[in-house]
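Propose amino acids for all 146 sites.
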């Protein structure tokens, strides 16, 4: 596990713990799935060039009554490459590296830089060898050069 992955788990794990305890407070929820949404932070808020913002959440039919201490974000419609991560969540870095460093450069796509999404549904078990979750990378067709 890389230092970056360890650092992410130190921040993201406790965020999920807090959100899971409060998820039942969210009104107008659609389904049981939970989502992790990863955005690039606005440049003026970054402490380094690649700093990200992570939001744990659920789908809702209306964002009119978001509980105190929570935020509403809409992931823009777009094209996503979907990767299924199998195994314990502590190995998610392997799946993400494979997607970004192997698949993406060889595909006809480039990162769309809007949002990446993690989908956690009934298939997910934190430490389960049989666990599955999805990691979605926002993509756009790579521009061809003449």
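Proposal:
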């Amino acid at each position: 596990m890389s230092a970056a992955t360890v650092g992410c788990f130190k921040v993201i794990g406790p965020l999920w713990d807090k959100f899971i305890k409060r998820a039942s407070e969210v009104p107008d929820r659609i389904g049981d799935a939970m989502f992790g949404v990863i955005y690039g932070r606005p440049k003026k808020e970054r402490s380094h060039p690649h700093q990200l913002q992570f939001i744990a959440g659920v789908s809702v039919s209306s964002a009119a009554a978001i509980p105190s201490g929570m935020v509403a974000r809409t992931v823009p419609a777009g094209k996503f490459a979907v990767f299924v991560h199998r195994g314990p969540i502590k190995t998610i870095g392997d799946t993400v590296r494979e997607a970004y460093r192997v698949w993406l450069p060889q595909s006809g796509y480039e990162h769309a830089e809007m949002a990446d999404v993690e989908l956690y549904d009934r298939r997910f078990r934190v430490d389960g060898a049989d666990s599955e979750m999805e990691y979605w990378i926002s993509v756009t067709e790579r521009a061809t050069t003449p």
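The longest strand covers residues 132-141. The chain is about 25% helix and 25% strand.
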